[in-house]
Design brief:
about 325 residues, 20 strands, rod-shaped
Length: about 325
């Protein structure tokens, strides 16, 4: 308090005393005894008079992070909060920050993926947009950690990507990723285990052959427009249908084959009309047997055509 000598240089100043020493108008420069201090200790006076480099500033407010990081005497910093804007997370802040589990908001979607490669970030929230478009499977797999960090402006909806050329062995994993909106497959034959519900809902590749399908699940799987052929895991018959049911399901049943992929699965038909039997069911190689129920007049009309071994019963209804 009594010293009047101007332009003093004070060395080995403790960080707890740094602010008061730097505030002294007679002190023109100072060096710190240690290199780690809090943001509260690193006052504007300390900033302007300190000559020591390699500093680590802790508990930096996100609003001040860019200013502190721009200081060439600062080598590292930690942040007081884990959510900050893209404007606050400057290149200098990114290079000097050691705080992890950060969320950066307001990021341009075109810059989001590159930013997401920052190991200190767990979430990147874009300012607008919902999709990064299409990406090759190998690229997505290599960068999946970064893709998984990207979210739309609401902070909860993923930023989506369409993945192309996915190996069937990887399809279930890729399809299970909430950031994947659609996918195409690298091959058109895959097993029932590989063709999961997620794969079927996101896949856009057509003319698929799915093998190893439980025969009881085959008819439902055949609804899938992208599946053109189904090979069951065992069994040869889908059971019995009425003629009207068979007409409804016929386009699906035509996709279904036995284990070897060449032999047809079969059905039996109950209660066909004489016309249905003669014109469609008897010639159908999938139908192994059927019964006919019709008027006497209709039966008489088609009798020569329906009196065959495949027809196990003919009943007149009047």
């Amino acid at each position: 308090s009594k010293n009047a000598t101007p332009s003093l240089t004070i060395s080995d100043v403790t960080v707890s005393d740094a602010a008061s020493v730097a505030a002294n108008a007679n002190v023109s420069s100072m060096s710190l005894a240690t290199t780690t201090l809090t943001a509260a200790q690193y006052t504007a006076d300390v900033v302007s008079k300190n000559t020591r480099t390699g500093l680590t500033i802790t508990d930096v407010a996100v609003a001040s992070a860019a200013t502190v990081a721009a200081d060439t005497k600062v080598s590292n910093l930690t942040l007081a909060a884990t959510t900050l804007t893209a404007a606050q997370y400057t290149t200098a802040v990114a290079s000097k920050n050691t705080t992890g589990s950060l969320t950066v908001t307001g990021v341009a979607i075109g810059s989001a993926l590159a930013l997401a490669n920052d190991a200190n970030l767990i979430k990147v929230v874009v300012n607008s947009g919902s999709s990064l478009g299409s990406v090759a499977s190998a690229t997505f797999t290599a960068g999946q950690t970064a893709y998984n960090k990207l979210y739309q402006a609401d902070g909860t909806t993923p930023v989506y990507v369409s993945v192309t050329g996915v190996p069937v062995a990887s399809a279930a994993t890729v399809a299970a990723n909430s950031h994947v909106s659609t996918l195409t497959l690298a091959a058109t034959t895959l097993t029932a285990a590989q063709y999961t519900t997620a794969v079927s809902s996101k896949n856009t590749t057509g003319s698929l052959t799915v093998t190893g399908v439980d025969i009881n699940a085959a008819l439902n799987l055949a609804i899938d427009r992208n599946v053109s052929q189904i090979h069951v895991s065992s069994g040869s018959s889908l059971g019995s249908y009425s003629a009207s049911q068979y007409a409804t399901y016929k386009s699906r049943i035509e996709k279904i084959y036995q284990v070897d992929g060449t032999q047809l699965v079969t059905v039996t038909i109950a209660g066909a009309t004489a016309s249905q039997a003669a014109n469609t069911l008897i010639p159908d190689s999938r139908v192994t047997s059927l019964t006919v129920s019709d008027t006497t007049a209709n039966i008489d009309t088609y009798y020569s055509q329906i009196n065959v071994a495949k027809v196990t019963q003919i009943s007149a209804t009047g």
